Amino acid sequence: MLLTREEMTFDFQGGTLDPARDREVIEWMMNQFLYGEMTGIQVGYWLYEHAPDYDAAKFLARQSLEEMQHVENFLRIMAMLGCKPKPAHGAVRFLSTGMMGGSWAEHVSLEMAAGEGFVLMAFYAIIDTLDHKPSVDILRRAVKQEERHVEFGEQQTMKAIEGRAWLRRRLLGLNLVSMWGVRRLAKFMQKRLPQDHPVMKHLPAFLELSVRCNETRLRRMGMIDRPLAELGALRRAALVTEAYGGKALGALASLVTLPLRLLPWFKRKRLTDTYLKDPHIHALPPGAPAEATD
Ligand SMILES: [Fe+2]
Ligand SMILES: [Fe+2]
User: Fold this and answer.
1) What's the structural domain count of the chain?
2) pLDDT tens by residue, 88-144
3) Residue 70 Cα, ligand 1 centroid: separation in angstroms?
4) Is residue 261 part of a domain?
5) Which end of the chain is more exposed for a tag (fewer CB within 10 A), N or C?
6) Which among 69, 88, 102, 132 is positioned nearest to 246, based on CA atoms?
């Protein structure tokens, strides 16, 4: 990976998440992660439609299996902590399913390098704060695989933008929007979070670090050659307009085939719609022991 564990580590100043006291917030977080891992089924789409070469195909085949094992990991953690599988927040569902990348370059840069990068930092934060060793041990093993997913995203992004300045600008524009979104979220949370909770009170600062790490990754991948702050508001606005202009043109061109492409989406329910009804999801009894599944 282009960033180290140390660089991606936030100092919660000794604050911990207590499995009993913080059950509700832990359950909420685990359910967002559970959904995120379930979106591992989408890797099948990238394998079948977009894998550029044999190595990438092999990587994706393995990744989809790892994400399914992560589903198992979270079910196990939730059973141990007495948390129930529940629907993920609408925004999380939209961000991870509704906003799937439109091309291989968008997938590897926005969903893998940036998106899984954000998730990886959240996993590190849970590892550093959750006061429950069996759960933390499971997560420690899973992050090794997530690190490889982020690294693959970084490598493939660098390959994709080499010699293609227009693509580099477009991906940068799209990235700026997602970083803006995370900053807005941090501002929104700042006023609503309990200021006396040892972990939750740090969330806005943690999100700020996540955005800064993403910027560092962009620089190391060669997407930008100076700090974003030096780009100026006008230049940043131009990048965003250009990125969405390009997307809009592409969307216009594909409008002709839209009804045909949408039909299966309406007809077919995917696992990300039905997993909460799957008997396996509820199979683990509360307090089930932690078994290694990775
Ligand atoms: Fe995962
Ligand atoms: Fe992953």
Assistant:
1) 1
2) 988 788 777 766 788 999 999 999 999 999 999 999 999 999 999 999 999 999 999
3) 5
4) no
5) C
6) 102
